[in-house]
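G., the chain you wanted modeled:
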Amino acid sequence: MLSPDDRQTLLDALRPPFGFHLGCAVGTTFSLGLDAALTAPAAFALYAATDAAEQRDVEPLELLDSIRRHAGRYTVFFQAGQVAVPAQRRLFAYLEGALVPVTAPGGGVFHPKVWVLRYEADGQAPTYRMLCASRNLTHDRAWDTIVRFDAADASNEARHEIDGSGLATFVRALPTLAVGEVDEERRESIIELADEVSQVRWVPPPHVHRGRFHPLGLNGSGSVPFPPMADGFAVMAPFLTAGLLKRLPPAVGRRVLISRPDQIAACAPTIAARFGEIYTLDPDATPATDHEPTSGSRTESSSARSHISPEDPSIPFDGLHAKLFVFDDGRASTVLTGSANATTAAFGPNVEFVAELVGPKGQLGVDALMAEPAKEAQTLRAFLTPFPLGDAAQYEEERDPIEDQLDLLRRQVARIPLIARAVDDGSASDRFQLSFTSDGEMDPLPSDVEWRCWPITLADASGSVVEGAVDASFSVSFEGITAFLANELTLGDTSTRFVLTADLQEAPENRATRLLRILLGDAERFLRYLLLLLTDEVVDQYGLADLLDALDSEAGQWQTAQDSLPLLEALLRTLARDPDRLGHIDRLITDLRTDPDGESLLPDGLLDIWEPIWAAAKERRP
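Predicted structure as C-alpha coordinates:
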Protein backbone atom coordinates (compact mmCIF):
# COMPACT_ATOMS: atom_id res chain seq x y z
CA MET A 1 0.00 0.00 0.00
CA LEU A 2 0.99 3.57 -0.55
CA SER A 3 1.24 5.95 2.38
CA PRO A 4 -1.61 8.49 2.41
CA ASP A 5 0.79 11.44 2.51
CA ASP A 6 3.55 10.21 0.22
CA ARG A 7 3.83 9.92 -3.56
CA GLN A 8 7.44 8.81 -3.24
CA THR A 9 6.55 5.16 -3.78
CA LEU A 10 4.88 5.96 -7.09
CA LEU A 11 7.78 8.18 -8.13
CA ASP A 12 10.23 5.42 -7.24
CA ALA A 13 8.22 2.99 -9.34
CA LEU A 14 8.39 5.34 -12.35
CA ARG A 15 12.11 6.07 -12.00
CA PRO A 16 14.31 4.48 -14.70
CA PRO A 17 16.72 1.66 -13.81
CA PHE A 18 20.30 2.72 -13.23
CA GLY A 19 21.95 3.72 -16.50
CA PHE A 20 18.66 3.98 -18.42
CA HIS A 21 16.47 6.89 -19.44
CA LEU A 22 12.84 7.14 -20.45
CA GLY A 23 12.07 6.21 -24.03
CA CYS A 24 8.28 6.22 -23.95
CA ALA A 25 5.59 6.14 -21.27
CA VAL A 26 1.81 5.84 -21.29
CA GLY A 27 -0.22 6.49 -18.14
CA THR A 28 -3.94 6.35 -17.40
CA THR A 29 -6.00 7.87 -14.60
CA PHE A 30 -9.60 8.71 -13.78
CA SER A 31 -9.05 12.10 -12.17
CA LEU A 32 -6.05 14.29 -12.85
CA GLY A 33 -4.35 17.18 -11.07
CA LEU A 34 -2.20 19.38 -13.28
CA ASP A 35 0.23 19.89 -10.39
CA ALA A 36 0.44 16.12 -9.89
CA ALA A 37 1.00 15.64 -13.62
CA LEU A 38 4.18 17.71 -13.27
CA THR A 39 5.66 15.14 -10.87
CA ALA A 40 5.86 12.29 -13.38
CA PRO A 41 8.63 13.93 -15.46
CA ALA A 42 10.53 14.50 -12.22
CA ALA A 43 10.65 10.74 -11.69
CA PHE A 44 11.69 10.10 -15.29
CA ALA A 45 14.71 12.39 -14.82
CA LEU A 46 15.75 10.85 -11.48
CA TYR A 47 14.42 13.74 -9.43
CA ALA A 48 11.68 13.41 -6.78
CA ALA A 49 9.65 16.59 -6.35
CA THR A 50 9.04 17.47 -2.71
CA ASP A 51 6.16 19.35 -1.18
CA ALA A 52 8.48 22.30 -0.65
CA ALA A 53 9.52 22.28 -4.30
CA GLU A 54 5.91 22.14 -5.47
CA GLN A 55 5.07 25.22 -3.40
CA ARG A 56 7.94 27.47 -4.46
CA ASP A 57 6.99 30.73 -6.13
CA VAL A 58 9.83 30.21 -8.62
CA GLU A 59 9.49 27.13 -10.82
CA PRO A 60 12.14 24.54 -9.86
CA LEU A 61 14.78 24.33 -12.57
CA GLU A 62 15.11 20.57 -12.17
CA LEU A 63 11.43 20.13 -12.94
CA LEU A 64 11.58 22.56 -15.86
CA ASP A 65 14.40 20.64 -17.49
CA SER A 66 12.70 17.31 -16.96
CA ILE A 67 9.45 18.47 -18.52
CA ARG A 68 11.19 19.99 -21.56
CA ARG A 69 13.20 16.84 -22.16
CA HIS A 70 10.29 14.43 -21.73
CA ALA A 71 7.23 16.32 -23.00
CA GLY A 72 7.08 14.30 -26.21
CA ARG A 73 7.90 10.96 -24.59
CA TYR A 74 4.95 10.44 -22.25
CA THR A 75 1.17 10.60 -22.62
CA VAL A 76 -1.45 10.50 -19.88
CA PHE A 77 -5.04 9.52 -20.74
CA PHE A 78 -7.71 10.68 -18.27
CA GLN A 79 -11.49 10.81 -17.93
CA ALA A 80 -12.72 13.94 -19.71
CA GLY A 81 -14.03 16.50 -17.23
CA GLN A 82 -12.09 15.14 -14.24
CA VAL A 83 -9.38 17.81 -13.97
CA ALA A 84 -9.56 20.27 -11.07
CA VAL A 85 -9.11 23.98 -11.75
CA PRO A 86 -5.59 24.70 -10.43
CA ALA A 87 -3.71 27.71 -9.22
CA GLN A 88 -1.83 28.90 -12.28
CA ARG A 89 1.69 27.73 -13.10
CA ARG A 90 3.57 28.74 -16.23
CA LEU A 91 4.95 25.20 -16.43
CA PHE A 92 1.49 23.89 -17.36
CA ALA A 93 2.20 25.00 -20.93
CA TYR A 94 4.63 22.08 -21.26
CA LEU A 95 1.84 19.61 -20.42
CA GLU A 96 -0.21 20.55 -23.47
CA GLY A 97 -0.36 17.61 -25.85
CA ALA A 98 0.81 15.13 -23.22
CA LEU A 99 -2.60 15.06 -21.45
CA VAL A 100 -5.36 13.42 -23.48
CA PRO A 101 -9.03 13.41 -22.35
CA VAL A 102 -10.95 10.22 -23.14
CA THR A 103 -14.40 8.71 -22.63
CA ALA A 104 -15.65 5.16 -22.11
CA PRO A 105 -17.41 3.66 -25.16
CA GLY A 106 -20.03 1.95 -22.99
CA GLY A 107 -21.30 5.16 -21.43
CA GLY A 108 -19.55 4.65 -18.08
CA VAL A 109 -16.32 6.33 -17.03
CA PHE A 110 -12.67 5.82 -17.95
CA HIS A 111 -11.23 4.58 -14.66
CA PRO A 112 -7.94 2.59 -15.07
CA LYS A 113 -4.73 3.54 -13.25
CA VAL A 114 -1.90 2.02 -15.30
CA TRP A 115 1.60 3.02 -16.35
CA VAL A 116 3.49 1.30 -19.19
CA LEU A 117 7.09 2.41 -19.70
CA ARG A 118 10.01 1.70 -22.00
CA TYR A 119 13.49 2.58 -20.75
CA GLU A 120 16.50 2.89 -23.04
CA ALA A 121 20.27 2.92 -22.69
CA ASP A 122 23.06 3.26 -25.22
CA GLY A 123 24.37 -0.10 -26.37
CA GLN A 124 21.69 -2.08 -24.52
CA ALA A 125 18.32 -3.53 -25.39
CA PRO A 126 15.36 -1.56 -24.02
CA THR A 127 13.64 -2.74 -20.87
CA TYR A 128 10.01 -2.33 -19.83
CA ARG A 129 7.94 -1.77 -16.72
CA MET A 130 4.22 -1.86 -15.97
CA LEU A 131 2.40 -0.47 -12.91
CA CYS A 132 -1.13 -1.56 -12.05
CA ALA A 133 -2.56 0.68 -9.31
CA SER A 134 -5.67 2.03 -7.67
CA ARG A 135 -4.24 5.54 -7.32
CA ASN A 136 -5.15 8.48 -9.55
CA LEU A 137 -2.62 11.03 -10.70
CA THR A 138 -3.66 13.54 -8.03
CA HIS A 139 -2.47 14.61 -4.60
CA ASP A 140 -5.30 12.78 -2.82
CA ARG A 141 -4.59 11.58 0.72
CA ALA A 142 -5.80 8.01 0.36
CA TRP A 143 -4.74 4.42 1.01
CA ASP A 144 -4.05 2.72 -2.32
CA THR A 145 -2.44 -0.33 -3.87
CA ILE A 146 0.19 -0.63 -6.56
CA VAL A 147 1.76 -3.68 -8.23
CA ARG A 148 4.94 -3.39 -10.28
CA PHE A 149 5.88 -5.73 -13.12
CA ASP A 150 9.31 -5.64 -14.81
CA ALA A 151 10.36 -7.25 -18.07
CA ALA A 152 12.35 -10.45 -17.73
CA ASP A 153 16.05 -10.25 -18.63
CA ALA A 154 19.27 -12.06 -17.78
CA SER A 155 19.26 -10.58 -14.26
CA ASN A 156 15.70 -11.54 -13.34
CA GLU A 157 14.77 -14.64 -15.32
CA ALA A 158 11.60 -16.08 -13.83
CA ARG A 159 10.21 -19.58 -13.72
CA HIS A 160 6.71 -18.10 -13.86
CA GLU A 161 5.40 -15.44 -16.19
CA ILE A 162 2.44 -13.13 -16.62
CA ASP A 163 0.28 -13.29 -19.75
CA GLY A 164 0.64 -9.75 -21.05
CA SER A 165 -1.62 -9.93 -24.11
CA GLY A 166 -4.37 -7.97 -22.38
CA LEU A 167 -1.98 -5.11 -21.67
CA ALA A 168 -1.01 -4.76 -25.34
CA THR A 169 -4.70 -4.69 -26.30
CA PHE A 170 -5.36 -2.01 -23.70
CA VAL A 171 -2.51 0.31 -24.76
CA ARG A 172 -3.37 -0.06 -28.45
CA ALA A 173 -6.99 0.97 -27.80
CA LEU A 174 -6.25 4.14 -25.82
CA PRO A 175 -5.96 6.63 -28.73
CA THR A 176 -9.32 5.44 -30.08
CA LEU A 177 -11.04 6.62 -26.89
CA ALA A 178 -9.75 10.20 -27.14
CA VAL A 179 -11.96 13.28 -27.24
CA GLY A 180 -10.75 14.82 -30.49
CA GLU A 181 -7.61 13.73 -32.32
CA VAL A 182 -4.33 12.50 -30.86
CA ASP A 183 -1.24 13.97 -32.50
CA GLU A 184 -0.11 11.53 -35.19
CA GLU A 185 3.47 11.27 -33.96
CA ARG A 186 2.26 10.62 -30.42
CA ARG A 187 -0.27 8.05 -31.65
CA GLU A 188 2.39 6.19 -33.61
CA SER A 189 4.70 6.02 -30.58
CA ILE A 190 1.84 4.59 -28.46
CA ILE A 191 1.01 1.93 -31.06
CA GLU A 192 4.70 1.07 -31.31
CA LEU A 193 4.86 0.66 -27.54
CA ALA A 194 1.79 -1.62 -27.64
CA ASP A 195 3.44 -3.79 -30.29
CA GLU A 196 6.60 -4.06 -28.21
CA VAL A 197 4.67 -4.82 -25.02
CA SER A 198 2.94 -7.73 -26.75
CA GLN A 199 6.34 -9.47 -26.90
CA VAL A 200 7.45 -8.70 -23.34
CA ARG A 201 7.79 -11.50 -20.78
CA TRP A 202 6.70 -10.03 -17.44
CA VAL A 203 8.23 -11.16 -14.16
CA PRO A 204 5.52 -11.81 -11.56
CA PRO A 205 5.71 -10.34 -8.04
CA PRO A 206 6.98 -12.57 -5.20
CA HIS A 207 4.88 -15.69 -4.48
CA VAL A 208 2.90 -15.31 -7.72
CA HIS A 209 3.01 -18.42 -9.93
CA ARG A 210 0.97 -17.15 -12.83
CA GLY A 211 -1.22 -14.26 -13.83
CA ARG A 212 -2.75 -12.18 -16.58
CA PHE A 213 -4.09 -8.71 -17.28
CA HIS A 214 -7.78 -7.89 -17.74
CA PRO A 215 -8.71 -4.72 -19.66
CA LEU A 216 -12.44 -4.21 -19.04
CA GLY A 217 -15.01 -2.21 -20.99
CA LEU A 218 -13.03 -1.49 -24.15
CA ASN A 219 -15.80 -2.88 -26.35
CA GLY A 220 -18.53 -1.04 -24.48
CA SER A 221 -19.37 -3.81 -22.03
CA GLY A 222 -17.47 -5.43 -19.19
CA SER A 223 -17.02 -8.88 -17.75
CA VAL A 224 -16.63 -10.33 -14.26
CA PRO A 225 -13.43 -12.38 -13.94
CA PHE A 226 -14.51 -14.04 -10.67
CA PRO A 227 -14.04 -17.80 -10.22
CA PRO A 228 -17.25 -19.88 -10.17
CA MET A 229 -16.51 -21.29 -6.69
CA ALA A 230 -14.34 -20.34 -3.72
CA ASP A 231 -13.55 -21.67 -0.25
CA GLY A 232 -13.48 -18.12 1.04
CA PHE A 233 -13.04 -14.57 -0.24
CA ALA A 234 -12.19 -11.01 0.75
CA VAL A 235 -13.29 -7.79 -0.92
CA MET A 236 -11.67 -4.42 -0.31
CA ALA A 237 -13.15 -1.45 -2.16
CA PRO A 238 -14.23 2.12 -1.37
CA PHE A 239 -17.42 1.81 -3.45
CA LEU A 240 -19.99 -1.00 -3.48
CA THR A 241 -23.24 -1.98 -5.14
CA ALA A 242 -25.48 -4.81 -4.04
CA GLY A 243 -25.75 -6.11 -7.60
CA LEU A 244 -22.03 -6.80 -7.84
CA LEU A 245 -21.74 -8.28 -4.34
CA LYS A 246 -24.46 -10.77 -5.25
CA ARG A 247 -22.25 -12.01 -8.12
CA LEU A 248 -19.47 -13.14 -5.79
CA PRO A 249 -19.05 -16.94 -5.83
CA PRO A 250 -20.59 -19.05 -3.06
CA ALA A 251 -18.18 -19.78 -0.21
CA VAL A 252 -18.26 -21.51 3.19
CA GLY A 253 -14.99 -20.17 4.61
CA ARG A 254 -14.01 -16.64 5.63
CA ARG A 255 -15.95 -13.95 3.84
CA VAL A 256 -14.39 -10.55 4.55
CA LEU A 257 -15.46 -7.08 3.44
CA ILE A 258 -13.40 -3.90 3.87
CA SER A 259 -15.09 -0.70 2.74
CA ARG A 260 -16.39 2.72 3.81
CA PRO A 261 -19.23 3.16 6.32
CA ASP A 262 -21.63 4.92 3.95
CA GLN A 263 -21.14 2.23 1.30
CA ILE A 264 -21.72 -0.57 3.80
CA ALA A 265 -24.88 1.16 4.96
CA ALA A 266 -26.20 1.43 1.40
CA CYS A 267 -25.78 -2.33 0.81
CA ALA A 268 -26.47 -3.60 4.35
CA PRO A 269 -29.02 -6.36 3.55
CA THR A 270 -26.81 -7.92 0.87
CA ILE A 271 -23.70 -7.61 3.03
CA ALA A 272 -25.44 -9.31 5.95
CA ALA A 273 -26.24 -12.27 3.71
CA ARG A 274 -22.85 -12.56 1.96
CA PHE A 275 -20.17 -11.61 4.51
CA GLY A 276 -19.16 -12.84 7.95
CA GLU A 277 -16.58 -10.14 8.76
CA ILE A 278 -16.98 -6.45 8.02
CA TYR A 279 -14.30 -3.79 8.52
CA THR A 280 -13.66 -0.14 7.85
CA LEU A 281 -10.39 1.78 7.85
CA ASP A 282 -9.57 3.13 11.29
CA PRO A 283 -10.27 6.90 11.19
CA ASP A 284 -6.88 7.50 12.82
CA ALA A 285 -5.15 5.84 9.86
CA THR A 286 -5.69 8.92 7.70
CA PRO A 287 -5.05 12.49 8.89
CA ALA A 288 -8.23 14.54 8.94
CA THR A 289 -8.86 16.94 6.07
CA ASP A 290 -11.35 19.75 5.76
CA HIS A 291 -12.10 18.84 2.14
CA GLU A 292 -11.32 22.30 0.94
CA PRO A 293 -11.17 22.32 -2.87
CA THR A 294 -7.74 22.30 -4.42
CA SER A 295 -8.67 24.59 -7.30
CA GLY A 296 -7.68 28.19 -7.80
CA SER A 297 -9.34 30.77 -5.62
CA ARG A 298 -12.94 31.82 -6.29
CA THR A 299 -13.74 35.50 -6.50
CA GLU A 300 -16.89 37.18 -5.30
CA SER A 301 -17.95 37.68 -8.90
CA SER A 302 -18.01 33.92 -9.41
CA SER A 303 -19.98 31.32 -7.52
CA ALA A 304 -18.03 31.92 -4.30
CA ARG A 305 -21.35 31.85 -2.53
CA SER A 306 -22.27 28.48 -4.04
CA HIS A 307 -22.11 25.04 -2.51
CA ILE A 308 -19.45 22.88 -4.19
CA SER A 309 -20.65 19.51 -5.42
CA PRO A 310 -19.01 16.55 -3.60
CA GLU A 311 -18.30 15.12 -7.05
CA ASP A 312 -16.27 18.19 -8.02
CA PRO A 313 -12.77 17.18 -9.23
CA SER A 314 -11.23 19.61 -6.74
CA ILE A 315 -12.55 17.72 -3.70
CA PRO A 316 -9.69 15.56 -2.38
CA PHE A 317 -10.32 11.89 -1.74
CA ASP A 318 -9.03 10.45 1.52
CA GLY A 319 -9.32 7.23 3.50
CA LEU A 320 -9.68 3.85 1.80
CA HIS A 321 -9.20 3.86 -1.98
CA ALA A 322 -7.56 0.46 -2.54
CA LYS A 323 -9.33 -2.20 -4.65
CA LEU A 324 -8.67 -5.87 -3.99
CA PHE A 325 -10.54 -9.18 -4.46
CA VAL A 326 -9.08 -12.37 -2.96
CA PHE A 327 -10.50 -15.86 -3.64
CA ASP A 328 -9.22 -18.99 -1.84
CA ASP A 329 -9.48 -22.32 -3.65
CA GLY A 330 -7.75 -25.24 -1.97
CA ARG A 331 -4.07 -24.45 -1.56
CA ALA A 332 -4.13 -21.64 -4.09
CA SER A 333 -5.55 -18.15 -4.03
CA THR A 334 -6.41 -15.69 -6.78
CA VAL A 335 -5.99 -11.93 -6.29
CA LEU A 336 -7.62 -9.33 -8.52
CA THR A 337 -6.27 -5.81 -8.04
CA GLY A 338 -6.31 -2.59 -9.99
CA SER A 339 -8.90 0.11 -10.61
CA ALA A 340 -12.18 -1.81 -10.35
CA ASN A 341 -14.48 -1.11 -7.40
CA ALA A 342 -17.01 -3.68 -6.20
CA THR A 343 -19.72 -2.10 -8.36
CA THR A 344 -21.75 -3.14 -11.37
CA ALA A 345 -20.39 -0.13 -13.28
CA ALA A 346 -16.79 -1.28 -12.75
CA PHE A 347 -17.52 -4.63 -14.37
CA GLY A 348 -20.01 -3.18 -16.85
CA PRO A 349 -19.85 0.11 -18.81
CA ASN A 350 -16.65 1.49 -17.24
CA VAL A 351 -13.19 1.10 -18.74
CA GLU A 352 -11.07 -0.52 -16.02
CA PHE A 353 -7.83 -2.47 -15.71
CA VAL A 354 -7.25 -5.39 -13.32
CA ALA A 355 -4.27 -7.69 -12.74
CA GLU A 356 -5.04 -11.32 -11.88
CA LEU A 357 -2.39 -12.99 -9.71
CA VAL A 358 -2.41 -16.66 -8.64
CA GLY A 359 -0.19 -18.17 -5.96
CA PRO A 360 -0.04 -20.10 -2.68
CA LYS A 361 -2.87 -19.50 -0.25
CA GLY A 362 -0.39 -19.07 2.59
CA GLN A 363 1.05 -15.95 0.95
CA LEU A 364 -1.83 -14.55 -1.12
CA GLY A 365 -4.98 -15.84 0.61
CA VAL A 366 -7.59 -14.28 2.84
CA ASP A 367 -5.78 -15.28 6.03
CA ALA A 368 -2.56 -13.70 4.75
CA LEU A 369 -4.39 -10.48 3.90
CA MET A 370 -6.00 -10.34 7.34
CA ALA A 371 -2.97 -11.49 9.36
CA GLU A 372 -2.66 -9.96 12.81
CA PRO A 373 0.19 -7.48 13.27
CA ALA A 374 3.45 -8.87 14.54
CA LYS A 375 6.06 -7.17 16.67
CA GLU A 376 8.46 -6.89 13.76
CA ALA A 377 5.95 -5.80 11.11
CA GLN A 378 2.70 -3.92 10.70
CA THR A 379 -0.12 -5.50 8.71
CA LEU A 380 -3.31 -4.28 7.08
CA ARG A 381 -5.31 -5.61 10.01
CA ALA A 382 -3.67 -3.08 12.33
CA PHE A 383 -5.39 -0.26 10.43
CA LEU A 384 -8.88 -1.79 10.38
CA THR A 385 -11.82 -1.52 12.76
CA PRO A 386 -14.70 -4.05 12.90
CA PHE A 387 -17.95 -2.50 11.69
CA PRO A 388 -21.19 -3.64 13.37
CA LEU A 389 -23.98 -3.75 10.78
CA GLY A 390 -26.34 -2.53 13.50
CA ASP A 391 -24.61 0.83 13.25
CA ALA A 392 -25.15 1.12 9.50
CA ALA A 393 -28.28 3.26 9.67
CA GLN A 394 -26.41 6.26 11.08
CA TYR A 395 -24.14 6.33 8.02
CA GLU A 396 -26.90 6.26 5.40
CA GLU A 397 -26.65 9.17 3.00
CA GLU A 398 -29.24 10.45 0.56
CA ARG A 399 -27.95 11.37 -2.85
CA ASP A 400 -28.65 14.96 -3.87
CA PRO A 401 -30.25 14.85 -7.34
CA ILE A 402 -28.72 18.24 -8.19
CA GLU A 403 -25.23 16.93 -7.49
CA ASP A 404 -25.88 13.85 -9.63
CA GLN A 405 -27.21 16.02 -12.44
CA LEU A 406 -24.16 18.31 -12.38
CA ASP A 407 -21.90 15.25 -12.48
CA LEU A 408 -23.66 13.99 -15.62
CA LEU A 409 -23.66 17.43 -17.24
CA ARG A 410 -19.93 17.86 -16.60
CA ARG A 411 -19.25 14.66 -18.53
CA GLN A 412 -21.67 15.69 -21.27
CA VAL A 413 -19.81 18.98 -21.74
CA ALA A 414 -16.41 17.25 -21.64
CA ARG A 415 -17.26 14.92 -24.55
CA ILE A 416 -17.11 17.78 -27.08
CA PRO A 417 -13.65 18.57 -28.56
CA LEU A 418 -12.40 22.15 -28.25
CA ILE A 419 -10.16 24.17 -30.56
CA ALA A 420 -8.04 27.06 -29.26
CA ARG A 421 -6.25 29.81 -31.17
CA ALA A 422 -3.97 32.59 -29.94
CA VAL A 423 -3.66 35.50 -32.38
CA ASP A 424 -1.68 38.71 -31.92
CA ASP A 425 -4.22 41.49 -31.40
CA GLY A 426 -2.10 43.93 -33.42
CA SER A 427 -1.39 46.28 -30.54
CA ALA A 428 2.05 47.29 -29.36
CA SER A 429 1.46 45.83 -25.88
CA ASP A 430 2.18 42.20 -26.75
CA ARG A 431 -1.42 41.07 -26.20
CA PHE A 432 -3.20 38.16 -27.83
CA GLN A 433 -6.80 37.16 -28.50
CA LEU A 434 -7.17 33.63 -27.13
CA SER A 435 -10.30 31.97 -28.48
CA PHE A 436 -11.96 28.65 -27.65
CA THR A 437 -14.63 27.07 -29.86
CA SER A 438 -16.51 23.77 -29.75
CA ASP A 439 -15.65 21.34 -32.53
CA GLY A 440 -18.92 19.45 -32.71
CA GLU A 441 -22.58 19.43 -31.76
CA MET A 442 -23.73 18.97 -28.19
CA ASP A 443 -27.11 18.60 -26.54
CA PRO A 444 -28.31 21.85 -24.94
CA LEU A 445 -28.02 22.16 -21.18
CA PRO A 446 -31.14 22.64 -19.05
CA SER A 447 -32.26 26.26 -18.98
CA ASP A 448 -31.64 26.57 -15.24
CA VAL A 449 -27.96 25.59 -15.53
CA GLU A 450 -25.40 28.38 -15.93
CA TRP A 451 -22.15 27.56 -17.71
CA ARG A 452 -19.12 29.86 -17.50
CA CYS A 453 -15.58 29.40 -18.86
CA TRP A 454 -12.21 31.17 -18.72
CA PRO A 455 -8.55 30.28 -19.44
CA ILE A 456 -6.78 28.89 -16.38
CA THR A 457 -4.23 31.70 -16.76
CA LEU A 458 -6.90 34.30 -15.88
CA ALA A 459 -8.98 34.89 -12.77
CA ASP A 460 -12.46 33.41 -12.74
CA ALA A 461 -13.89 36.94 -12.76
CA SER A 462 -13.03 37.03 -16.49
CA GLY A 463 -15.36 34.11 -17.13
CA SER A 464 -17.62 34.19 -20.17
CA VAL A 465 -21.15 32.78 -20.10
CA VAL A 466 -21.57 29.88 -22.52
CA GLU A 467 -24.86 29.55 -24.34
CA GLY A 468 -25.32 26.44 -26.47
CA ALA A 469 -21.70 25.83 -27.47
CA VAL A 470 -18.30 27.23 -26.52
CA ASP A 471 -17.41 30.34 -28.52
CA ALA A 472 -15.41 32.59 -26.22
CA SER A 473 -12.50 34.97 -26.67
CA PHE A 474 -10.19 36.49 -24.07
CA SER A 475 -7.44 39.12 -24.10
CA VAL A 476 -4.28 37.61 -22.62
CA SER A 477 -0.58 38.33 -22.33
CA PHE A 478 1.95 36.03 -23.93
CA GLU A 479 2.20 34.05 -20.69
CA GLY A 480 -1.59 33.80 -20.62
CA ILE A 481 -1.73 31.63 -23.74
CA THR A 482 -2.95 28.17 -22.76
CA ALA A 483 -4.82 25.14 -24.07
CA PHE A 484 -6.52 24.61 -20.70
CA LEU A 485 -10.00 26.09 -20.28
CA ALA A 486 -11.57 26.32 -16.80
CA ASN A 487 -15.33 25.72 -16.63
CA GLU A 488 -18.05 26.15 -14.03
CA LEU A 489 -21.55 24.69 -14.08
CA THR A 490 -24.04 26.07 -11.54
CA LEU A 491 -27.49 24.73 -10.75
CA GLY A 492 -29.31 26.50 -7.94
CA ASP A 493 -26.77 27.03 -5.17
CA THR A 494 -24.55 24.11 -6.21
CA SER A 495 -21.63 24.33 -8.62
CA THR A 496 -18.86 22.21 -10.07
CA ARG A 497 -15.59 23.33 -11.66
CA PHE A 498 -13.32 21.48 -14.05
CA VAL A 499 -10.72 21.97 -16.80
CA LEU A 500 -11.15 21.04 -20.45
CA THR A 501 -8.18 20.53 -22.76
CA ALA A 502 -8.32 22.19 -26.17
CA ASP A 503 -6.35 21.52 -29.33
CA LEU A 504 -4.20 24.66 -29.55
CA GLN A 505 -4.03 25.00 -33.32
CA GLU A 506 -2.58 28.49 -33.56
CA ALA A 507 0.02 30.12 -31.31
CA PRO A 508 3.26 32.13 -31.69
CA GLU A 509 5.88 30.05 -33.48
CA ASN A 510 8.56 30.77 -30.89
CA ARG A 511 6.28 30.13 -27.93
CA ALA A 512 8.30 27.30 -26.35
CA THR A 513 11.61 29.15 -26.58
CA ARG A 514 10.15 32.42 -25.40
CA LEU A 515 8.46 30.73 -22.46
CA LEU A 516 11.79 29.14 -21.50
CA ARG A 517 13.44 32.56 -21.57
CA ILE A 518 10.75 33.94 -19.26
CA LEU A 519 11.11 31.03 -16.84
CA LEU A 520 14.90 31.30 -16.71
CA GLY A 521 14.72 35.03 -16.23
CA ASP A 522 18.36 36.07 -16.34
CA ALA A 523 21.87 34.94 -17.21
CA GLU A 524 22.58 33.58 -13.72
CA ARG A 525 19.59 31.25 -13.81
CA PHE A 526 20.55 30.27 -17.35
CA LEU A 527 23.98 29.17 -16.07
CA ARG A 528 22.30 27.09 -13.36
CA TYR A 529 20.09 25.56 -16.03
CA LEU A 530 23.09 24.64 -18.19
CA LEU A 531 24.70 22.96 -15.22
CA LEU A 532 21.51 21.02 -14.60
CA LEU A 533 21.56 19.65 -18.14
CA LEU A 534 24.89 18.04 -17.32
CA THR A 535 24.20 16.72 -13.82
CA ASP A 536 23.25 13.12 -14.62
CA GLU A 537 26.91 12.25 -14.99
CA VAL A 538 27.89 13.72 -11.60
CA VAL A 539 24.98 12.98 -9.30
CA ASP A 540 26.75 9.99 -7.78
CA GLN A 541 29.90 11.98 -7.11
CA TYR A 542 28.38 15.16 -5.70
CA GLY A 543 25.16 13.79 -4.20
CA LEU A 544 21.69 14.66 -5.41
CA ALA A 545 20.71 16.63 -2.29
CA ASP A 546 23.85 18.79 -2.39
CA LEU A 547 23.39 19.39 -6.11
CA LEU A 548 19.79 20.53 -5.69
CA ASP A 549 20.87 22.83 -2.85
CA ALA A 550 23.40 24.41 -5.17
CA LEU A 551 20.86 24.79 -7.95
CA ASP A 552 18.42 26.45 -5.56
CA SER A 553 20.99 28.85 -4.17
CA GLU A 554 20.68 32.55 -4.88
CA ALA A 555 24.38 33.20 -5.38
CA GLY A 556 25.50 30.49 -7.77
CA GLN A 557 27.36 28.55 -5.08
CA TRP A 558 28.42 25.83 -7.51
CA GLN A 559 31.16 28.18 -8.66
CA THR A 560 32.74 28.87 -5.27
CA ALA A 561 31.80 26.24 -2.69
CA GLN A 562 34.10 23.38 -1.87
CA ASP A 563 33.28 20.25 -3.90
CA SER A 564 31.33 22.39 -6.37
CA LEU A 565 31.33 21.79 -10.11
CA PRO A 566 32.23 24.72 -12.41
CA LEU A 567 30.36 24.84 -15.71
CA LEU A 568 33.52 24.45 -17.80
CA GLU A 569 34.51 21.32 -15.89
CA ALA A 570 31.00 19.93 -16.33
CA LEU A 571 31.16 20.50 -20.08
CA LEU A 572 34.59 18.87 -20.36
CA ARG A 573 33.50 15.86 -18.29
CA THR A 574 30.45 15.35 -20.49
CA LEU A 575 32.55 15.76 -23.63
CA ALA A 576 34.84 12.98 -22.42
CA ARG A 577 32.13 10.62 -21.16
CA ASP A 578 29.08 11.15 -23.34
CA PRO A 579 29.42 13.79 -26.08
CA ASP A 580 25.95 12.97 -27.43
CA ARG A 581 24.42 14.60 -24.34
CA LEU A 582 25.85 17.93 -25.38
CA GLY A 583 23.22 17.99 -28.09
CA HIS A 584 20.77 19.23 -25.44
CA ILE A 585 22.99 22.26 -24.87
CA ASP A 586 23.39 22.95 -28.59
CA ARG A 587 19.64 22.87 -29.23
CA LEU A 588 19.05 25.18 -26.28
CA ILE A 589 21.66 27.73 -27.32
CA THR A 590 20.51 27.59 -30.96
CA ASP A 591 16.90 28.20 -29.92
CA LEU A 592 17.82 31.16 -27.75
CA ARG A 593 20.03 32.72 -30.42
CA THR A 594 17.16 32.65 -32.92
CA ASP A 595 14.83 34.47 -30.50
CA PRO A 596 15.07 38.28 -30.57
CA ASP A 597 15.45 38.45 -26.79
CA GLY A 598 16.97 35.04 -26.17
CA GLU A 599 20.56 36.08 -26.67
CA SER A 600 20.29 38.35 -23.65
CA LEU A 601 20.36 35.21 -21.51
CA LEU A 602 23.72 34.07 -22.86
CA PRO A 603 26.42 35.26 -20.41
CA ASP A 604 29.44 37.08 -21.75
CA GLY A 605 32.11 34.63 -22.82
CA LEU A 606 29.82 31.58 -22.89
CA LEU A 607 30.01 31.13 -26.66
CA ASP A 608 33.81 31.36 -26.52
CA ILE A 609 33.75 28.32 -24.21
CA TRP A 610 30.92 26.48 -25.91
CA GLU A 611 31.82 26.62 -29.60
CA PRO A 612 35.16 24.71 -29.42
CA ILE A 613 33.62 22.13 -27.05
CA TRP A 614 30.69 21.56 -29.41
CA ALA A 615 33.04 21.31 -32.40
CA ALA A 616 35.01 18.61 -30.58
CA ALA A 617 31.78 16.84 -29.62
CA LYS A 618 30.62 16.70 -33.25
CA GLU A 619 33.92 15.14 -34.26
CA ARG A 620 33.53 12.41 -31.63
CA ARG A 621 29.91 11.61 -32.41
CA PRO A 622 29.39 8.62 -34.78
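The mean pLDDT is 83.

Shout if anything looks off.
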